[in-house]
Write a structure and sequence with these properties.
heterodimer; A: alpha/beta; Rossmann fold; six-stranded mixed β-sheet; 11 strands; globular; B: alpha/beta; four-stranded antiparallel β-sheet; 25% strand
């Protein structure tokens, strides 16, 4: 059953040179307990569409949609107070730059306890105990000491674990991860993806993974949505997408992977899109 | 004949002490030997902190080595004793971030002319002609000569950075993660360009990367670095077919793959898990 439903979402930004359409009539749906990957290159509108659903876009953005609901509640016509009951509690988000996502002036422990006290309604003492428990759950080494550590005293991988701990602190029903491993080394990337998948399987939350990396998609997703220049190109379950990609753009992305190179030259997306235009 | 040869290259960094900390010496590169022939590519693979960029800067004659011998075309070089113009022209570098490596206030034409101005006695008219020719060679129209960096996309900027590196007709190009900041489709175009230029000018490449799929595509020889040491060194075929060192195997295991059979197995495992959960 559908948890988040978006129909015909359009996001326009007012710029000095006129209006710019970042998302152009996108549909998206994620079911309970499902892992959806949204794939695209920069400018494909993959992050903007999710930020629109979360209500996190600046005032310069004009958002229109036929439908945008979370668990049958209308996200478009909700009061800010009602929205705050959902965003940050039932839907949480982690971002690409883990070190930049944390406040450098406060300890990791302070920041996660803040989430627990204001969004999960725990007392100060209960929050401290639960923070420690969460740090253990996401595999932070020496959790007691790391509660007292500032972001600059931890590595990128550890900061991303702190972000994940904060994101699952309220037992959300949907976690949106926006390029969660792009800034990390490949061995750390593997650990973080394994952790996200493990948490997803334990808690049964839905997971939306925004990425440009087809390898990450192959190792995590149930269903995949491919976007290009603000439009949806293709949607399929992960196996059909890799086995028999329908849209030329998806085929282009897959064959541009150096690991799939045949011969000396890599095919480029441009040549595929010309073929599509014919 | 080898274009560049390193014997037992060592680099130490001195970390100054403070009131509470004793000064110490960090050995970032611990005795690495290598050689690259004309027209060949050596890929240096490793994670952040492995010392691969430090080694790249030594090979590019930017930083001095603390110990060991570096020779370019058979002649030993020691940049602490000064560099001849001729040597400076032989080795050029392309950096990772095309947004940071071009001066925003310098026109593209001037970016390309500057190496000639500083290192050669080429007359002004010829400098301009050669810069225009080089623009065309890297796939940009000569009319872009008077534009500024902000008017170009990331992939175009990386083409400009490559053009600048080639202005002095070097025999060796050191490329520090040249495609990791680029989108997949643009990455394919830049890799194709690098392959074409290598054929045309018979260039030797030292290609720094953390992406094994790119390395498999472009390298002739591979050197895997871990904590300042070369843990594995050999031809591409040998390293990819039968990695010897545990760290190399770990890197391979962590790299996400888009193998259909692996996806099929993962999907089946998730379905079984769901069925078990009811």
């Amino acid at each position: 059953m559908s948890l988040l439903t978006i129909r015909n979402l359009t996001v326009r930004f007012a710029t000095s040179t006129g209006s710019f359409t970042a998302v152009d009539g996108i549909d998206a749906r994620v079911d309970r307990g499902e892992v959806l990957a949204i794939v695209g290159e920069s400018g494909s509108g993959k992050s903007v569409s999710m930020l629109a659903a979360m209500g996190l876009l600046p005032d310069t953005a004009t958002i229109t949609a036929d439908e945008m609901t979370f668990d049958s509640q209308d996200l478009l016509r909700m009061t800010p107070r009602q929205r705050r009951q959902i965003i940050g509690r039932q839907i949480t988000m982690i971002f690409q730059e883990p070190i930049a996502s944390l406040n450098p002036s406060f300890t990791a422990g302070y920041q996660i306890e803040e989430v627990l006290r204001f969004n999960a309604g725990l007392s100060k003492r209960a929050a401290r105990a639960r923070a420690l428990e969460l740090f253990r759950q996401v595999g932070i080494p020496e959790p007691e000491e790391k509660l007292r550590a500032y972001p600059h005293q931890m590595s990128g991988g550890q900061c991303q674990r702190v972000m994940i701990a904060m994101a699952i602190a309220t037992n959300p029903r949907l976690l949106i991860a926006d390029e969660p491993t792009t800034a990390l080394d490949v061995t750390i990337q593997k650990q973080i993806l394994d952790l996200l998948m493990e948490l997803q399987e334990q808690t049964g939350m839905a997971l939306i993974l925004i990425t440009h990396d087809m390898g990450v998609v192959a190792e995590t997703a149930d269903r995949v949505q491919v976007q290009y220049k603000g439009k949806k190109m293709e949607e399929a379950d992960v196996l059909s997408l890799f086995e028999a990609p329908k849209h030329p753009y998806t085929r282009a992305l897959l064959s541009a992977l150096p690991e799939n190179a045949t011969g000396d030259r890599l095919p480029t997306v441009g040549s595929f899109m010309e073929e599509a235009a014919k | 004949m080898s274009v560049v040869q390193g014997k037992n290259i060592i680099r130490d960094y001195h970390v100054p002490g403070s009131l509470t900390r004793r000064a110490k010496v960090v050995r970032a590169v611990k005795g690495i030997s290598f050689s690259v022939d004309r027209g060949k590519t050596l890929a240096i693979v490793g994670e952040s902190g492995s010392g691969k960029s430090t080694l790249a800067r030594i090979i590019a004659l930017i930083d001095p080595a603390t110990g060991g011998e570096l020779s370019i075309e058979g002649k030993p070089v020691d940049i602490t004793k000064g560099l001849t113009r001729e040597m400076r022209c032989k080795v050029q570098m392309v950096f990772q971030n095309p947004y940071g490596s071009l001066n925003p206030r310098q026109k593209i034409g001037d970016v390309l002319i500057e190496p000639l101005l500083l290192n050669t006695d080429t007359p002004a008219a010829e400098r301009r002609d050669r810069a225009r020719e080089m623009l065309v060679k890297v796939g940009l129209p000569a009319e872009h000569f008077n534009r500024y960096p902000h008017m170009f996309s990331g992939g175009q900027r990386q083409r400009i950075a490559i053009a600048r590196a080639l202005m002095l007709k070097p025999t060796l190009l050191v490329l520090d993660e040249p495609v990791s900041a680029l989108d997949l489709s643009v990455q394919a175009q830049v890799l194709n360009l690098l392959a074409d230029l290598q054929d045309e000018f018979n260039l030797a490449y030292v290609f720094i990367s953390h992406d094994l799929s790119v390395v498999r595509y472009i390298a002739d020889d591979v050197l895997v670095m871990h904590q300042g040491e070369a843990v594995e060194q050999g031809t591409r075929e040998a390293v990819f077919a039968d990695p010897q060192h545990p760290y190399t195997r770990e890197l391979f295991a962590a790299t996400p793959v888009t193998d259909i059979e692996a996806i099929r197995q993962r999907v089946a495992r998730r379905q079984a898990l769901r069925a078990a959960a009811g």
